[in-house]
Write a structure and sequence with these properties.
There is one protein chain. 18% of the residues lie in helices and 38% in strands. It is an alpha/beta fold. The radius of gyration is 16 Å and the shape is globular. It contains five helices and 13 strands. The chain has a seven-stranded mixed sheet. Strands 1, 2, 3, 4, 10 and 11 form a six-stranded mixed sheet that branches. α3 links the parallel β6 and β7. The structure holds S-adenosylmethionine (SAM).
Length: 211
């Protein structure tokens, strides 16, 4: 079993943090998320959206994964060996329609402005084949926030079949955002909900593009 050292990654916007625009007193710390990620079956190539950071899906599924991320540095620093890493915006995917049977979004929607979520859903729907699956893991934001807190930091313990990862994802708070928001968007886009798991501070959704 492999245990990775604790690292706070993906604390966005890092630039603002470095410039002192984000003050420590503006950050709320969430209790640690315990995320168990079992292997899952997937046909053909897997498009992983936001595959930088810890590159968790790349670590789990290796050469089946096409990892895309908005930030080059995030891809360069990501461990794991996906088939290929490509700098690409999920709001405007460069793939042809019906290219992939599976798409994964592992703790990436929390980094995308809620105003852009519908566009990203439409793009994923477009590049998925009929019958294709979209797997989403993401944070549940608290409905109310502590006074003066604009950002939230989620420490995570991720349990993969081959080992554990300890990391942290920090973002601006999108109060109340959770699985219901994504089920609503999924339905609006045309997906069917195949599975849903509500955990402490995070959720998992499996969505299906109808045949
Ligand atoms: C928490 S980080 C990494 C999560 C990652 N899936 C992992 O395994 O650690 C979220 C990533 O989403 C990326 N991201 C944010 N907006 C994006 C967009 N519009 N298109 C593609 N990637 C985006 C960020 O650059 C960042 O690397």
């Amino acid at each position: 079993m492999r245990t990775m050292s604790f690292a706070i990654i993906c604390l966005l916007p890092t630039f603002s943090w470095a410039q002192g625009k984000i003050k420590p007193e503006q950050i709320q710390e969430h209790p640690k998320l315990e995320v168990v990620l079992p292997d899952f079956s997937a046909e053909g190539l897997i498009l992983d959206i936001g595959g930088g950071g810890e590159g968790v899906i790349g670590q789990l599924k290796g050469k089946q994964v096409v990892a895309v991320d908005l930030i080059k540095r995030e891809l360069e620093d990501a461990p794991g060996e996906p088939l290929i890493k490509i700098v690409m915006d999920a709001r405007e995917l460069k793939f042809l329609d019906r290219t992939f049977a599976t798409t994964t979004v592992f703790f990436t929607f929390m980094y995308i402005s809620p105003a852009d979520h519908e566009k990203v859903f439409q793009e994923i729907y477009r590049v998925l084949r009929p019958g294709g699956r979209l797997h989403i893991w993401d944070a549940v934001f608290p409905k109310t926030t502590e006074e003066g807190k604009l950002y939230i930091l989620y420490p995570l313990h991720i349990k993969l079949p081959a080992g554990d990862i300890s990391t942290g994802y920090g973002v601006r708070i999108a109060a109340g955002q959770g699985a219901d928001h994504f089920v609503e968007l999924a339905t609006k886009t045309g997906f069917q909900t195949a599975a849903r798991k509500d955990e402490k501070g995070w959720f998992y959704l499996e969505l299906k593009k109808p045949v």
